[in-house]
Amino acid sequence: MKKSLLKKVAVGVLAGVIGLSFVGCGKSRVENTKDASSKQVVSTTLDKIKESKKLVIGTSADYPPYEFHKEIDGKDTIIGFDVNIAQEISKDLGVELEINDMKFDGLIAALKTGKVDMVLAGMNPTEERKQSVDFSKIYYTAQHAVIVRAEDKDKYKTLADLKGKEIGAQKGAIQEELAKTQIEGANVKGLGKVTDLVLELKNKKVDAIVVEVPVAKFYVEKNKDLAITDATFKIEEGEQGSAVAVKKGDEAFVNAINSTLDRLIKEGRIEEFVVKANEQVE
Ligand code: ARG
Q1: Residue 260: CB within 6 Å of ligand 1?
Q2: pLDDT band per the 50, 70, 90 thresholds, residue 238
Q3: What's the gap in Å between 48 CA and the centre of ligand 1?
Q4: What CATH fold (topology level) applies to the domain 45-141+240-280?
Q5: The dihedral of CA 240, 88, 272, 265: what is its sign?
Q6: Among residues 37, 185, 219, 221, which one has the fewest Cβ atoms lying within 10 Å of its Cβ?
Q7: pTM summary value
Q8: β-strand 208-212 against 133-140: which pairing, if any?
Q9: Facing residues of 246 across strands?
């Protein structure tokens, strides 16, 4: 009797100790993780870049003059004004530049998993994206345009004229949302690459596609059977223009990117890159 009581007491005390130590552990563990992760996020990307002497950017090279493929000296090369900006950032960091070309809708995931260090893809800093990544300052602003087949240009003058039509937009791009919310009854088809959207339009699989104005100008210039309409979209003030995306909390890296952007903006280099990229587009 006495013995079993003692046992019970002992077990009770032991349970209490274990319980307490769990509480203690849990608490300090939370604090540690918080501390460690915030420190990690602040320094790792820049450290990693400097250690590997390489800056890896993610882009979707289907967006001339921002980024596109071109054969230079017999070699397939990715060029464009985003690439020029990335080159300046890597130059300022004193490292090599590596470009990772993928579908636009895979870019944010690639950034979050560390497959790329930053995304330069004519990306608008939308509120939704800001929930999962951080952005640099805006380096370039452009409106959005609707491309149709040249023979339909007179038919589609405004967004209202496109009511209930098949509209193509890049998957994951804000144009998908713009088409859905600003073209009544639009049947929006999202594709991974803009080059495929252009084919869909030419092949009458969609009636119109939505891309940024400079991109629209390029595709229309290259495809005489296509034309830009006068239709325009309303866009949130803060979501206009392109910015560089980085991992959330990557403050030191954003600061480094912003200081390169400040320099380029001050020296008028971005405009120069845009003009050059437009000339390289054929
Ligand atoms: N500006 C649009 C967005 O942020 C589309 C960008 C598409 N970029 C590209 N490289 N394909 O959603």
Answers
A1: no
A2: confident
A3: 27
A4: D-Maltodextrin-Binding Protein; domain 2 (3.40.190)
A5: positive
A6: 185
A7: 0.84
A8: unpaired
A9: 134
Ligand 1 proximity of 99 Cβ (cutoff 6 Å): no
Question: Ligand 1 within 6 A of 64 CB?
Answer: no
Confidence of residue 80 (pLDDT cuts 50, 70, 90): very high
Name the nearest CA neighbour of 239 among 208, 212, 277, 274: 212
* Residue closest by Cα to atom 1 of ligand 1: 123
Instruction: Give the separation between CA 48 and CA 70, rounded to whole angstroms.
Output: 30
Confidence of residue 44 (pLDDT cuts 50, 70, 90): confident
Closest ligand 1 atom to residue 62 Cα is 11
Regarding the beta carbon of 123 and ligand 1, being less than 6 Å apart is answered yes
Tell me how far apart the alpha carbons of residues 221 and 218 are, in angstroms, rounded to a whole number: 5
Say which CATH superfamily domain 144-228 falls into: Periplasmic binding protein-like II (3.40.190.10)
In the predicted model, what is the mean pLDDT of residues 99-125? 97
Verify whether ligand 1 is closer than 6 Å to residue 62 (CB atom): yes
Residue intervals of the chain classified under CATH 3.40.190.10 are 45-141+240-280, 144-228
pLDDT reading at 225 higher than 60: yes
Helix (H) or strand (E) holding 75, with range, is: strand 75-79
Q: Is 152 in the pocket of ligand 1 (CB under 6 A)?
A: no
Whether 136 and 261 have beta carbons less than 8 Å apart is answered as yes
Distance in Å, CA 31 to ligand 1 centroid? 39
Q: Is the CB of 68 under 6 A from ligand 1?
A: no
Mutate to test the pocket of ligand 1, among 67, 170, 198 (most ligand atoms within 8 A of CB): 170
Residue 192: strand, helix, or coil: coil
